[in-house]
Amino acid sequence: MTQKQSSLFLLHAALGFLSVLLLILVVALFTRIIYPRIVSERSEVSVLLSDVIQIEVLNGCGVPGLATRFTSVLRQNGFDVVESGNFETFDITQTVVIDRIGNMENARRVAHALGVPEDRIISEISPHFYLDATVVIGADYETLYQ
Questions:
Q1: Could you please report the per-residue DSSP string of the chain?
Q2: CA pair distance 141, 119, nearest whole angstrom
Q3: CATH code for 45-143?
Q4: Which pLDDT tens digit goes with each residue over 20-61?
Q5: Neighbours of 40 (CB within 10 A)
Q6: How much is the pLDDT for 100?
Q7: φ/ψ (deg, to 5) at 40
Q8: 137 and 60 in contact (C-beta within 8 Å)?
Q9: Residue 137 has pLDDT above 50, yes or no
Q10: Using CB atoms within 10 A as the burial measure, which of 23, 98, 112, 123 is most buried?
Q11: pLDDT tens for each residue of 71-119
Q12: In 10 A of CB 6, how many CB atoms?
């Protein structure tokens, strides 16, 4: 093969490749026009919200292993416990559920799973928390579902 023949071969190969690519793009365009995407009627907010409630469990009374025990109970009930540990103090007398994102229904579901009365659900919305609720276990832990 001479220099001129190899140049012509490369030119024809490039033109063939570009022709196939153009054909694929045209078919894709017509497919998109004929079969448009069906947009869900749900709002963007509801698409972003998950059915899984993410929570943290904090020991507020100082009993060793309490946060771990409640974490197991909550996970068995379908909650996603993303963090557990100790609260800043150990003088909490009554267990509370703290709503972190402004969705009291999620906090109620957590409280109901543990047997925490609704009057002990509080709202402390913070953009720095990436979870739905916080459970602070108090000295009344023996009266809750475990």
A1: --HHHHHHHHHHHHHHHHHHHHHHHHHHHHHHHHSPPPPPSS-HHHHHS-SSPEEEEEESS--TTHHHHHHHHHHHTT-EEEEEEE-S-S---S-EEEESSS-HHHHHHHHHHHT--GGGEEE---TT--SSEEEEE-TTGGGS--
A2: 16
A3: 3.30.70.2390
A4: 999 999 988 888 787 765 544 443 444 344 578 999 999 999
A5: 9
A6: 94
A7: -65, 145
A8: yes
A9: yes
A10: 98
A11: 999 999 999 999 999 999 999 999 999 999 999 999 999 999 999 999 9
A12: 10
Query: Two tokens at 27?
Result: 């078919």
Query: What does the block give as tokens for 105?
Result: 């229904």
User: In the numeric block, which tokens belong to residue 37?
Assistant: 């995407």
Residue with tokens 């998950």: 50
* Of 65, 77, 86, 62, residue with least CA distance to 116: 77
Q: Two tokens at 71?
A: 């974490």
Which pair of tokens denotes residue 28? 């894709």
